[in-house]
Amino acid sequence: MDFNRNTKKDTFIPTSSMGDIAFLLLIFFMVTTIFREETGLPVELPRAEAGEEVNRELVSNIYINRVGQISIDDRLVQVKHVRDIIGQKINDNPQLIVAFKTDNYADYGTVSEVMEELKEVNAVRVFFNNDIESQPGSKY
Q: Which residue of 22, 48, 61, 82 has the fewest CB atoms within a 10 Å radius of its CB?
């Protein structure tokens, strides 16, 4: 008697629920992951102190409007005269503070030229402000 079995058993891995398992793992990792905001280096930034009243004799204002006109203390000047005028003011008062105020739309070439002139006369106490916007028809 021959007892041979002719039945073949195939190995089979069910993959119909594989998508469900991957989805559940994805949700599990999303829920358990902790997102931490980067803190960077601990830096303490300087705080502005209360403003000081500065004597008007210590301040010289330079204005530049959007069309490139330059005014030093309400006097229209050209770029080539900035060095002479500010140089004389610094010689008269070494503590001079130059308040440099430009229009938001002023030409940066003109601003750069005036800055170079200020460097030539060693005007190191310079305050920058760009809050001025000239209105159509205004002087500055």
A: 48
User: Would residue 64 count as lying in a domain?
Assistant: yes
The 10 Å CB-count burial string (b at 16+, else e) for 57-86 is eeebbbbbbbeebbbbeeeebeeeebbebb
SS (H, E, C) the chain: CCCCCCCCCCCCCCCCCHHHHHHHHHHHHHHHCCCCCCCCCCCCCCCCCCCCCCCHHHEEEEEECCCCCEEECCCEECHHHHHHHHHHHHHHCCCCEEEEEEECCCCHHHHHHHHHHHHHCCCCCEEEEEEECCCCCCCC
Largest Cα span, the chain: 129
Residue 123 covered by a domain: yes
List, run by run, the mean pLDDT of 10-residue segments along the chain (140 residues).
Answer: 70 82 93 72 53 73 86 88 91 87 83 91 79 44
How many structural domains comprise the chain?
1
What's the predicted TM-score (pTM) here? Answer: 0.54
Residue span of the structural domain in which 104 resides? 56-132
